[in-house]
Design goal:
The termini are far apart. Helix 17 links the parallel strand 9 (425-430) and strand 10 (451-456). The longest helix has 24 residues, at 247-270. Helix 10 crosses helix 12. The protein is of the alpha/beta class. It has helices at 3-17, 36-39, 120-125, 159-177, 181-185, 189-202, 215-226, 247-270, 272-275, 281-297, 312-319, 326-340, 347-357, 362-372, 383-389, 397-400, 438-447, 471-483; strands at 59-66, 76-84, 94-99, 126-131, 208-213, 231-237, 300-302, 305-307, 425-430, 451-456, 491-493.
């Protein structure tokens, strides 16, 4: 063993035995071969130059990581992170890294809104770490020659619409991969998990704590599988079944979103005096389906945004994730209905409502999904699934089973991660979650045998840990993060009725 390595090992063991936190730049004994310069780098914290983080006391930095961990002496990239320091240095116990989902979601701001749901004890104990995963946001983003607002479309009403989506998916994949094929293939969940371990070490921590939402639950589960000894406390909100990532995840979204549309229609029917969609839920649904058909006959394109039968179901999907968005969805349906019937449509205003609900980077989303797990190559594989779903899923079946850019992406560089471990974790799931169907969380709970499951009952919402949603859920989460206590058994919670619009 080289002398330098022996000295670092002795220093690390000595400080650990003395109960002293390792400062930035001091080596740990667990450094993978060839990665010293990444695991032991010094981080230069400074101003974030970010209006959302202003006033929080946050600092930001870039962490250097290998582009390809199999080639640590090759190309590098950077991962941007933010830090809101623990409010009580005497009680500080470590870092809590967050991921808001997507994939394709920027996490730099995540701990600002989510921090409002955290107790003073949690704020006292943790540095709250936001992160833009590799290839996304401020982390050396992938750039595609053909920008699109989403890689997810509804297949439309016939084979000709499906053929159009197939052509768009192929063109988008080429536009993303061709400029830098190596980089495009290395923006994966497994590499982001490796980046998180570099961040942990560079911040002088022996373990990390993790708070993942939606896709972030898959990232957390992959990290726990790859680095089980580096997990302290892990909270996974709106969990994904790793075995169904990602094609199965979208197929599961079809039925639950048909339910969600009917649930929203009950609310809209109560407000017919304002929106005029119909006085019964059935009439409201009929109005929505008619509007989608009208969009097929009168498509509108302006300011790089398209309204047609391929995009309107996705706009509805974006706004069904939270009943607090009921009025936004009603406004969007109204705007689209007016526009496709020949009236004026403010496309920028429409786009703003959608983007506010789903602030994702389509380019990063494609890279992660397609880089994680291969998709069927033959376009003929998808269309029978689309057709089979139409009878029971008239609005969302053609989206949930549609072809994507992944059908034309290069093969993944690594096999998908199989999750089977006993790492302790707190898993949250809502019974009517429109993005990660409830059964997905149950499956992850079974895969992570050391976990506890908290169910938010009878609630159509994506993200169970929110200010004012459920005191029961909030108490369990904050207790676990503050003192490490998991519930003795799985728990079912109720939502506070005052959270929802009438």
């Amino acid at each position: 063993m080289p002398v330098r390595r022996i000295r670092r090992l002795v220093l690390g063991v000595t400080m650990f035995a003395a109960g002293v936190a390792l400062p930035q730049g001091v080596a740990h004994s667990d450094t993978p071969d060839g990665l010293d310069r990444f695991y032991h780098q010094s981080l230069g914290w400074g101003a974030c130059d970010d209006p959302v983080l202003e006033g929080t006391g946050a600092q930001c930095t870039n962490v250097l990581v290998p582009l390809d961990y199999a080639k640590p002496d090759g190309r590098t990239t950077t991962v941007a992170i933010s830090r809101i320091a623990a409010t009580d240095p005497a009680r500080r116990r470590g870092i809590l890294i967050g991921n808001p989902g997507g994939p394709g979601g920027s996490g730099m701001h995540m701990m600002v809104p989510n921090g409002k749901a955290m107790s003073p004890d949690v704020h006292a104990e943790y540095d709250l770490i936001g992160m833009d995963p590799r290839g996304i946001g401020r982390s050396d983003p992938i750039k595609c020659a053909l920008p699109v607002p989403t890689i997810l479309f509804s297949a439309g009403f016939d084979i000709f619409g499906y053929a159009r989506d197939t052509a768009v998916a192929s063109a988008f994949a080429t536009a993303c991969v061709a400029p830098d094929p190596e980089k495009a293939r290395l923006i994966t969940t497994r590499n982001t998990a490796r980046d998180m371990d570099v961040i942990r070490s560079a911040m002088g921590e022996n373990k990390l704590n993790f708070f993942g939402q939606s896709y972030g639950t898959y990232l957390g589960a992959v990290f726990a599988q790859m680095f089980p000894d580096r997990v302290d406390r892990m909270m996974l909100d709106s969990a994904i079944d790793p075995d169904r990532w990602w094609i199965g995840l979208y197929q599961d979204q079809g039925p639950i979103n048909e339910y969600a549309l009917d649930d929203w229609a009950v609310w809209a029917a109560r407000h017919d005096d304002q929106y005029h969609f119909g006085t019964t839920p059935a009439a409201v649904r009929a109005f929505v389906e008619l509007t989608i058909h009208q969009a097929a006959g009168h498509p509108i394109f302006a300011n790089m945004y398209l309204v047609d039968e391929h995009t309107v179901p996705m706009m509805i999907f974006a706004l069904l994730s939270n009943p607090q968005l009921n009025t936004n969805l009603a406004d969007v349906i109204t705007m689209i209905s007016v526009g496709v019937n020949g009236g004026p449509l403010d496309m920028d205003a429409l786009k703003a409502k959608i983007v506010a609900a789903v602030p994702l980077d389509a380019q990063g989303m494609a890279a992660v999904m397609c880089g994680d797990k291969g998709a069927p190559r033959d376009p003929a594989w998808y269309y029978p699934h689309v057709e089979a779903a139409r009878a029971t899923q008239p609005v969302f079946g053609a989206f949930a089973n549609n072809i994507t850019a992944c059908a034309f992406w290069p093969d993944p560089i690594e096999p998908a991660t199989e999750i089977h471990n006993a790492v302790p974790a707190l898993i949250l799931g809502s019974t009517h979650d429109t993005r990660t169907a409830y059964q997905e969380g149950l499956a992850l709970h079974a895969d992570m045998t050391g976990s506890r499951m908290v169910t938010l009952a009878d609630t159509r919402i994506h993200g169970a840990f929110r200010v004012g949603l459920s005191p029961c859920v909030s108490d369990i989460v904050n207790t676990y993060l503050a003192d490490g206590t998991l519930p003795a058994t799985d728990v079912t919670c109720q939502a506070d009725p005052s959270f929802f619009p009438q």
